[in-house]
């Protein structure tokens, strides 16, 4: 029998052996990949995006289980301090005082950005409402109480404003969204700054309380005459009417990806913390209420698998994940910020 014939007869057997070895190798590789589970909690602002990221990432990395609960920025930070979560999320980053309480130190990473919109429920209003800086501040102060107020009408000529009481809806939980809004109100109104001030939890002059962006959105939908603040994606997904707001230049600006990007151009993230805000942007085309939202991780993890999982997830989220960011209505990070985040994420270790 020729060597050539012997090879031809052996080929199927060799192929079968090769396939068998390949399957065995894959099985061994699969067993060698350690399953890891990480748990996080915090801001409702980025929750729709985080849930999308987590689902997409798990499809690609089935050995990594990530769970995120939308409980508000304050709860997320407190749980990070207590060590009961593996990561947190906050729309205001973390203060030096809070960071000092985290025994394993903390790394703050901006992951996306978006606007905070002022939404309302006025049945049968055919056009988008324009609100001046003084008007929306006075509504939150309880000084303007009806939708047909002359001060509202000035910016909306020809609009038949209804004789309908304004029902202010605000957050009841400690919220980064509240902090960003009230920082803006304090920046544009000395009266607001002196009487109410800024913070994740404040004493609201008027209004009905609801929990999370989810709760405020639902309350606005259910209440004729409602006026409240939510993250842009919640308003868009739930088809809420949102106001066109007057900015520092006196221009009335809609919350669009372009107007939000103009605002972010003015935000310079310091290399040591990557946390910065702009309460009242100067750009004539800027939408006035915009923020990044931050993922807060430990600098040192007790479990090396968790440390690596967090680093890998962050790297994926600021590259591939940014495609979902834009599709859902958030603002993808600039390339400069992506580089800053990747560099900061290298600090995460075991």
Would you write up a description of this structure?
Keywords: Phosphate transport, Signal, Transport. Residues 35-319 form the PBP domain. The chain is of the alpha/beta class. The chain has two domains: 36-113 and 289-345, Periplasmic binding protein-like II (D-Maltodextrin-Binding Protein, domain 2, 3-Layer(aba) Sandwich); 115-264, D-Maltodextrin-Binding Protein, domain 2. The chain contains 14 helices and twelve strands. 43% of the residues are buried.
Structural topology:
Layout: H1 3-32, E1 36-42, H2 47-60, E2 64-70, H3 73-82, E3 87-90, H4 96-99, E4 106-120, E5 130-131, H5 133-141, H6 150-154, E6 167-171, H7 176-188, H8 190-195, E7 208-210, H9 212-222, E8 226-231, H10 232-237, E9 241-242, E10 244-246, E11 252-253, H11 257-264, E12 290-298, H12 304-317, H13 322-328, H14 335-345
Parallel strand pairs: 1-2, 1-3, 5-10, 6-7, 6-8
Antiparallel strand pairs: 3-12, 4-8, 4-9, 4-12, 10-11
